[in-house]
Structures are given as C-alpha cells and as structure tokens.
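Support reply, case 0932

Customer input (verbatim):
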Amino acid sequence: MATTHIERLTPLDHLMPRAYDGLVSLSKQLLWLPGRIFLTTRAREDGPVLRYDDDAVPTLQDKGVINTSYASAVEGVMPPSAVPADVMPVPVMVGEATFNSGVPIFGASVFQFADKQHMRLFVSIHQNVVDATGFAQVVNLWVQNLSGAEPSGEKLGLDRFTRLSKVLSEDMSAVSTQSTAEIFAGHPGHSSAP
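Our regenerated output:
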C-alpha cells in the first residue's frame, strides 16, 4: 500500500503562479523587459543597444532557502552580507560571457530564509533602461498585474524617440529659430562673465 505524504506549502508556493501571471501581463505592456543590453565596445562604439523579442517573457527565479534566519538578518538591519550573492537575479559584476551575450534588462529572484516563514524578492532593472522613477513604475505595474486585471493593451516604452520628439516638438520649434548664444542666455544658471 502506498504511503501518503503531506507537505506544508510555503509562502512561495502560493505566490509564484500569480507572480508569473503578473510577469506575463507586464511583458505584454513592456515588450523590452525580457530583453538584453549590449554595451559599448571598441568594435561597437555607437553606444548601448537594447535588443528584445516581442514574445519573450521574463522569469522569476526561485533561489530556494538560504542558511541565514530572518531574525538574525533583521538584527543586523538586513546588511547585504546577510544574503548570499548567488540569490541575486543577475550577477553583481558582469563577466565577459554575459557582456558578450548581453546584460539582462530585468531580473527577479525570490528566496526563503532558513526559518521558512519569511521570504525576500529581489528585482533589478538595468540602469541604461530606466531610472529610479521608471523602476518604481515597472514594479508598480507588476503589482497591478498581480491582481489579475487584464493589461490595458497599451504597449509602454515603444518608440521612445518618437514619443519624446512629440512631447518636445513645441519646445523645439520655439528654440530652433534662436542662436546657441540665445539658448544659453535663456538658462537660469547661465552667466556671460568669464
């Protein structure tokens, strides 16, 4: 006769399906999210390049359980040394292989502390793609998508140069008739003194 085994589900087991569904929805809104950044090299001096496939989905890596207890990590105000580097979603330092294959734009990993009562989520987004405000917006969209709401269908972040040009077009037409000296003189921090 077969033996029945009962295993208690962890917080990760409850969250992972919704987190993945949220990532799928998020990647429909931000097509570049699962892409990679190819940084400047001597052979490629034109600056960083972003590459992505429009059907790719980013992954959430389950890094398992670390040896540190949550209580001891909190005692030390959660210093970076309390968390092993291998639970980070992307390497802290980019090696040549990663550099050549492109640095991931988005990385997410989750792990449990030794007590299996607490967990931690790490999210990283490459600094060449978004700043701190953009990072907060991406995380906010992911959280909204965790609720199960269908994405608006709007693909955010596409054709950024066109959108930026459109926003700046009024300002550009106003300054296009001015000389460089007039543009500099209009800046509040400008001084004509040597």
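We compared this against your earlier run and they match. Two observations from our side: The chain has two domains: 11-156, 157-187. The chain has a mean pLDDT of 80. Please reopen the case if you see a mismatch on your end.
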